[in-house]
C-alpha cells in the first residue's frame, strides 16, 4: 500500500512542497512536524547547514524538530532551493538569494498558522537566519554555531576542499569554477554572495530574543562579539556553550545527536512562548503532494509495514507505458539523496527519459522508522532486504511493468545484489563500490574487504620495528589479530574449494558463480569501483581468473580514478552520471 506522504503522517511528520509565491518560484521541499497539545503561539522554521554538514547533522535536525513539535510548536524543516529534495542545483546562479527566499516563503507559510514565527539556524543556516532577522518580523532566533560571516564559511569550505583526496593528488582533478567541498559546489558567484553576508552588520527588526549556541570545546570568541553587537542593536541575547556539537559533526554513521543542545533550545523556546489562542492553534500547514519541473514529477511516498518507509518517486509527466522502473538505494546512514545529491540528479535524468525512479530511506535511516525492536542507523539491518522487496513491489505496481533495474552504493549495492539473485523480475543491476556481497548471521565482521585491508596493513607491519615493539610489549590487539587470521584462513580454504569445484564443474563458484548465474539469466550486471576503494582489491581477488569469461557473458566493470567511495569528486561524478544514465536506459 502506498500513499502520498503529504497526506500520510509518520510520527506526526508530513513531507511535501511549499509552492512558490509566483509562477517563477519553484516549489521548495519541507518536512512539517505537527504540534502536540497544548499548541504554542510560536512556530519555528529550521534552517539547516548546507552540503556535507547537513548530512552530518541530519539526525540532530530531525530530532530537534520532533522535540519542538512534542513541546507544542509548529515546526518546519526546510531544504533550500537546489538542495536536498528541492528542485534545482548548486551550479545555478543566485544560490544565496534563492536560499534566503526559501526561508522567507517557509516563514510566510508557517505564519498563517501561528501568531509569531521564529527561525533556528545551524552553521551557514544560522547566517541566513541572522540576515533575515533584519527584514522579517520574528519573535525568536536561535543561532547554533553560526558562521558570523559568509567569508568565514567559504574559507572553511576551501580548507575542506583542499583536504579531499582528489585535491591532494595534484594535477588530476579538473575542477569547475569555485570551491568543491564534500561533493557540493560553491560557484564563484555563490562565494561572492556568501562573502557579502556579515552578521556583525545586521540590525534586527524589533526587539528579538536571540539564543546563541556555541560548542563548549572552543573559546566562543566570535560568539561573544556577535552577542555584544546584537545586544547593542536592541536584542535580548543569551550566549551559551553546550556539549555535543563535536560528537554530532562527524561521519553520519558515528554522529551522535546533540541532546543537550536540543533540550536547551526546546526549553528556551518554551520559556518565551504561550499557549496559542484557539483560533490560531488548531490549523496545520498543508504541503503540496508533488512538484513538477519540465517533463518530470517528484512526489514523496510512504509504504511498507505500518507505512514506516519513506521515499521519493521521480517519474515522467507524460502518460504512457514508459521505460522499466529503477530503484536507487543509498549506502550507509545517509538520506535517499545520496551524500552529494547524485541520486537526485540520476533520478531526474532517468525520468526525463521515461523511467519511473524510486529512492528510499531503508528502515531506521533518516525519514524511515526502524522495524519493530530494531535499532536505528543500521545500514545492514535485518529488515533491509524486506524493505527492498517492498520497494520493488511498489514500483512494479505503480508502473505496471514486469521487470525492474536496481542501482545501489555500498550497503545499497549489497541489497541490490541480493535482491537480484532472489527475484527474477530484476533484469538490470548496477553496483557502486560494493564492499560486502554476502552477510553471515549477525554483523559483517571480517568481510573480504576488511580482510584485504588488514592483510595489506600486516604485510607492511612485518617490516616495521615499531609494530614489532608494539606486539612484543603487549600493546597490540592480539584478539583482533587472531580473529583476522582465522577469518583469512577460512576465506583462503573457501577460495581454494571454489577453484577446485569450478575446475570439476566447469562453472565459476563463489562470487564469480553468483555473477555467472545472474548473467545466464540475462540480467545486465554492472559494477563500478573506485580504484582506491577498499572493496576494489577484494572484488578482484574474488573474481580472479573468471573475470574474462564473465565479461564475455556481458558483465561490465568500470574503474574510476581515486579512493572516492561516494564519488564526491566532480571530475569523476559528472561523467559517471552520464555513463550510468546510458547504462540504465539501454
Tell me about this structure.
The chain has 2 domains: 12-273, Alpha/Beta hydrolase fold, catalytic domain (Rossmann fold), CATH 3.40.50; 291-433 and 566-585, Rossmann fold. Helix 2 (58-70) packs parallel to helix 10 and helix 13 crosses helix 14 (411-422). Helices cover 40% and strands 20% of the residues. The model is unreliable at 5-9, 170-174 and 442-446 (pLDDT under 50). The strands form 3 sheets. Strands 1, 12, 13, 14, 15, 16, 17, 18, 19 and 20 form a 10-stranded mixed β-sheet that branches. Strands 2-3-5-4-6-7-10-11 form an 8-stranded mixed β-sheet, with helices on both faces. Strand 10 (209-215), helix 8 and strand 11 (236-242) form a beta-alpha-beta unit. The protein is of the alpha/beta class.
Amino acid at each position: 500500500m502506498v500513499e502520498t506522504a503529504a497526506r500520510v503522517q509518520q510520527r506526526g511528520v508530513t513531507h511535501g512542497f511549499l509552492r512558490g509565491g509566483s509562477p517563477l518560484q519553484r516549489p521548495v521541499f519541507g518536512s512539517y512536524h505537527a504540534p502536540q497539545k497544548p499548541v504554542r503561539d510560536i512556530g519555528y522554521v529550521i534552517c539547516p547547514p548546507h552540503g556535507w554538514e547537513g548530512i552530518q547533522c541530519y539526525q540532530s535536525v530531525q530530532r530537534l524538530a520532533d522535540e519542538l513539535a512534542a513541546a507544542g510548536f509548529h515546526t518546519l524543516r526546510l531544504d533550500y532551493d537546489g538542495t536536498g529534495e528541492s528542485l534545482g542545483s548548486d551550479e545555478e546562479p543566485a544560490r544565496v538569494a534563492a536560499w534566503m527566499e526559501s526561508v522567507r516563503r517557509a516563514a510566510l507559510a508557517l505564519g498563517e498558522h501561528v501568531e509569531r514565527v521564529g527561525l533556528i539556524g545551524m552553521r551557514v543556516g544560522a547566517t541566513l537566519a541572522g540576515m533575515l532577522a533584519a527584514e522579517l518580523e520574528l519573535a525568536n532566533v536561535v543561532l547554533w554555531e553560526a558562521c558570523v560571516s559568509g567569508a568565514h564559511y567559504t574559507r572553511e569550505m576551501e580548507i575542506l576542499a583542499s583536504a579531499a583526496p582528489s585535491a591532494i593528488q595534484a594535477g588530476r582533478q579538473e575542477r569547475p569554477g569555485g570551491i568543491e567541498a564534500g561533493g557540493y559546489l560553491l560557484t564563484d558567484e555563490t562565494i561572492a554572495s556568501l562573502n557579502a553576508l556579515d552578521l556583525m552588520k545586521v540590525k534586527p527588526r524589533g526587539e528579538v530574543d536571540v539564543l546563541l549556541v556555541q560548542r563548549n570545546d572552543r573559546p566562543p570568541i566570535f560568539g561573544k562579539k556577535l552577542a555584544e553587537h546584537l545586544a547593542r542593536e536592541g536584542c535580548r541575547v543569551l550566549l551559551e556553550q553546550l556539549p555535543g556539537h563535536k560528537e554530532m559533526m562527524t561521519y553520519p554513521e558515528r554522529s551522535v545527536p546533540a541532546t543537550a543542545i536540543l533540550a536547551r533550545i526546546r526549553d528556551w523556546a518554551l520559556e518565551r512562548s504561550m499557549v496559542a489562542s484557539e483560533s490560531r492553534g488548531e490549523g496545520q500547514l498543508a504541503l503540496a503532494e508533488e512538484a513538477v519541473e519540465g517533463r518530470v514529477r517528484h512526489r514523496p511516498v510512504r509504504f511498507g509495514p505500518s507505512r514506516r518507509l519513506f521515499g521519493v518517486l521521480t517519474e515522467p509527466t507524460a502518460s504512457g507505458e514508459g521505460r522499466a522502473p529503477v530503484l536507487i538505494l543509498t549506502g550507509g546512514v545517509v538520506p535517499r539523496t545520496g551524500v552529494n545529491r547524485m541520486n537526485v540528479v540520476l533520478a531526474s535524468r532517468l525520468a526525463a527519459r521515461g523511467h519511473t525512479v524510486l529512492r528510499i530511506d531503508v528502515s531506521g535511516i533518516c525519514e524511515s522508522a526502524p522495524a519493530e525492536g530494531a535499532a536505528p542507523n543500521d545500514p545492514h539491518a535485518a529488515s533491509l532486504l524486506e524493505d527492498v522487496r517492498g520497494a520493488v513491489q511498489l514500483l512494479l505496481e505503480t508502473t505496471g511493468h514486469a521487470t525492474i533495474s536496481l542501482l545501489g552504493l555500498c550497503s545499497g549495492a549489497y541489497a541490490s545484489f541480493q535482491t537480484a539473485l532472489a527475484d527474477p523480475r530484476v533484469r538490470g543491476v548496477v553496483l557502486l563500490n560494493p564492499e560486502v556481497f554476502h552477510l553471515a548471521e549477525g554483523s559483517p565482521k571480517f568481510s573480504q574487504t576488511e580482510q584485504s585491508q588488514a592483510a595489506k596493513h600486516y604485510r607492511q607491519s612485518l617490516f616495521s620495528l615499531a609494530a614489532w615493539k608494539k606486539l612484543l610489549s603487549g600493546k597490540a590487539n592480539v584478539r583482533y589479530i587472531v580473529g583476522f587470521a582465522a577469518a583469512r584462513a577460512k576465506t583462503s580454504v573457501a577460495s581454494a574449494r571454489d577453484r577446485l569445484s569450478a575446475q570439476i564443474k566447469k562453472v565459476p563458484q563463489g562470487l564469480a558463480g553468483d555473477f555467472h548465474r545472474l548473467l545466464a539469466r540475462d540480467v545486465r550486471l554492472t559494477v563500478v569501483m573506485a580504484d582506491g576503494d577498499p572493496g576494489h582489491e577484494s572484488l578482484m581477488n574474488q573474481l580472479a581468473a573468471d573475470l574474462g569469461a564473465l565479461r564475455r557473458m556481458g558483465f561490465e566493470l568500470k574503474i574510476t580514478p581515486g579512493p572516492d567511495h561516494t564519488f564526491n569528486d566532480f571530475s569523476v561524478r559528472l561523467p559517471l552520471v552520464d555513463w550510468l544514465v546510458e547504462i540504465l536506459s539501454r
